Amino acid sequence: VIEYTPGDDEVLIPTDRSSVPTERETYSRLRSRQKDILTTEHENKVLLTHLAVADQDSAVPCQRPLSARTRFLIGCAARGIYPQPSWIIRRELSTILNVSSLGMGDEVAIILADTIGLLPMLEGLYIADNQLTDVSLVPFINNLSGCSQLKELDISKNKVDSKAAEALRVYLSSTSCNLNVLSMCNANIDDYEASKFMLAIALRHTISDLNLAENLLGSHEVKNAIKRGGSTAGESIGKLLQDQNCSLTRLRLTWNMIRFNSGVALVKAIAVNNSLTSLDVSYNGLAIPGGEALGEALSYNTSLVALNVAHNNLTPRAAFTILSGIRSCPSLREVDISENPIGVGGAMALLSVNLSEGHRLAIDIKGCSLKVQDSTCWFDPSKLDREFVLKLDSPYERAVCIELLRMAAASDEYKIEKYTYIENSESDSVGRDLDFEYGILRRKDSFFLGTNELKSGEGSALYDIASNIDNARNLYRDTFSEVFQRYDTNLSGGLDWREIIVVLNELGLESSLAVVHQLLYVYDVDGSGIIEEEEFINFLMDIKEQRDTKNVFDDQVGRFMCLKDNAASQHPYYPPSKGIVKVAFRV
């Protein structure tokens, strides 16, 4: 609102109102009324000049406070900046201010920051991709304390340095901060800067969606390895996830440099976290240490629904551990492990997961290398008649122990003759023999279905998935081909009756000669007496379809191993993460 008296050479008031010496007008009304009298350039100059004068002259009476838009225009006038229409035109009534990708720069952003306090009902602020630095981000963040209704903040694609990170820490710690969504994608944030505000997020427990994708998280990992003294982003986020009051449900960390110790610290926290439902750590460097730690953590987790670990250099050993953990995590529904060298060991584990958990779990494996050989991934499901000595502090060997227990529960062809647990692996203490019995896995058991139990009406959707065999074949053809070659031990190009028995045993199916002959009758289309690769794929897809249908509509869905003394609890036995077990396994 301004008060303006026209000069001798200016006519801003129509002739029919010339007797009125002064007029209070808003910028938009003056512009609309005088568009035929003044040129655009001259009008901007006159109006912006008098807006600035009105703001500086406290003697000028005003009927109401300046609006945020008027204050912004005054600031532009004071600095000789002509505002672009896109900065000031309100397209709709909203509680969200979206000025992303307008190329404002620091100077204009400072002016805009001064108006934020005049928007107390602001619920969403998006200032991404505006070439901003700490110069403008600091006043922006400082003024957010007056917006207690703010729920979403996006400062992505700007340059956040130490001063802005400190201002963000102060804001996130304040009682006026009620943010639910914080997005800082591609904002040049490194470990030091992220660690500053992670503790503040943990203190307030309001943020549920945090996006730190495409930053420099993990860049200080090597420096900290040489000289400890700082905390990496992975470690700080891990501490946040370990907080029992953690509010995060979605965490995006794709395209960073999270690896080594920081990667291990991050994924280990998943074991105790019960809030996170979506985690994206694709395009990082978890590799073997992070992959194995993730697999072990998943075996304890009950809340995660979606997991993305694509492009993380997950070798067969790491992939086997992760896939074993996936089977133990009842809430998981979507997993992306694409573009990783999972090799034959990972492919075998993937086949087992797909056949047993395919009714609830979708796994993306596109671009995975299945020909990688890894001597450290030594577990071979076709050579089980032996005694295993497993160190449980190794996530991979613990995963092998869990798989042995699963296989013994799934098929009467397998038997654990003796299971000895030695708690202290560094001493010569005598171990303790554990006795197991079968427990019945039912749909109503929460430890199996988690928080996303399937409703009876969802059966038709699962039928559609199961019936779409062509798409499934395309997705898993490479995997099945590698697995086929693994079972084809005599390299004959097909599976004979002896090799079919091995397959049936591993899948937990009856493997009598009568069943084998029946399978040959159904799937040996050309009558060669062996099951060739395409026939093998048909067989696996049919098994998956039958298991999907059975798991959806049958109350009893399988067996598990539980301690005899603890059978009444109806919970599977999982080995601890320390000590040694000696397992005498017989086929």
Description:
The protein has 587 residues and is of the alpha/beta class. It is built from 21 helices and 20 strands. The strands form five sheets. A ten-stranded parallel sheet has the order 3-4-5-6-7-8-9-10-11-12, with no helix packed on it. Strands 13-20-14-15 form a four-stranded antiparallel sheet, covered by helices on one side. Strand 10 (306-308), helix 13 and strand 11 (334-336) form a beta-alpha-beta unit. Helix 12 (287-298) crosses helix 15 (395-410) and helix 17 (459-467) runs antiparallel to helix 21. The longest helix is centred in the last third of the chain and has 21 residues, at 533-553. The protein is elongated, with a radius of gyration of 32 Å. It starts with a strand and ends with a strand. 40% of the residues are buried.
Return residue spans where pLDDT drops below 50 for at least 5 consecutive residues: 1-39, 57-63, 443-473, 549-556
Distance between the termini: 88 Å
How many β-strand stretches?
20
> What is the mean pLDDT?
79
Range of helix content? 40-55%
Binned strand content: 5-15%
C-alpha Rg (nearest Å): 32 Å
Shape, per Cα inertia axes = elongated
Number of helices: 21
Structural class, by secondary structure, is: alpha/beta
* Spatial strand order of the main sheet: 3-4-5-6-7-8-9-10-11-12
Summary keywords:
ten-stranded parallel beta sheet; 587 residues; 13% strand; 21 helices; alpha/beta; disordered N terminus; elongated; four-stranded antiparallel beta sheet
